[in-house]
Amino acid sequence: xxxxxxxxxxxxxxxxxxxxxxxxxxxxxxxxxxxxxxxxxxxxxxxxxxxxxxxxxxxxxxxxxxxxxxxxxxxxxxxxxxxxxxxxxxxxxxxxxxxxxxxxxxxxxxxxxxxxxxxxxxxxxxxxxxxxxxxxxxxxxxxxxxxxxxxxxxxxxxxxxxxxxxxxxxxxxxxxxxxxxxxxxxxxxxxxxxxxxxxxxxxxxxxxxxxxxxxxxxxxxxxxxxxxxxxxxxxxxxxxxxxxxxxxxxxxxxxxxxxxxxxxxxxxxxxx
Length: 272
Fold this sequence. Notes:
Helices cover 75% and strands 0% of the residues. The chain has helices at residues 3-17, 45-67, 74-95, 99-118, 134-155, 157-165, 175-222, 225-269. Helix 3 packs across helix 4 and helix 5 packs across helix 6.
């Protein structure tokens, strides 16, 4: 590799070391309050994005409920498609004849995570509501409580916990090894992995997009000559490509979260 090409590749790194380029940092997820500063109700950018997303879902649901027509228009058909997807591809696929009972919960989790995730690629918002641990943790708690409550109602409290911790058909000495593992995996590790999976995907996606577009701005406006324009065009193309990929990941993670919710409920209400 020629020394000239090495200089081109290394130039952003050198400028970063000199303080010319500052990449995105973790502070983006913990911004200062924008409204009601100094009060218990102070709102920062992340909380405002979550409120906007929640309000958008409520408005869409209210319009759908109040103005639904026998022959749906494009907007109604789009909203019905999301509801039908959560009903058929998630609920009925895993819960079968018991899906109707748990469909409101599954649809709420699917739509909530979907729209919270998609705020990360919407101009003006550009940060997923699920990219800070609070929102993924709330969804996880709801899923976890649904798993336990559904199991207790369907199987009975004692029977539910016995089936989760002492799977039938296992020689009793094995329970000394299996029961602690089942307790950790079901009641400790499962909610942690559910939270971290969603959080990590949204955080990494935002950091990648921020790096691409901040790099594009820096290369276009702070570097002179054709080198800055050429490298900036590459980072711009990468940013557009990763935006499309992030939209796919946002939808995929909403589907996975709702599917795992239905799966956990199915495991809790079924006989082992």
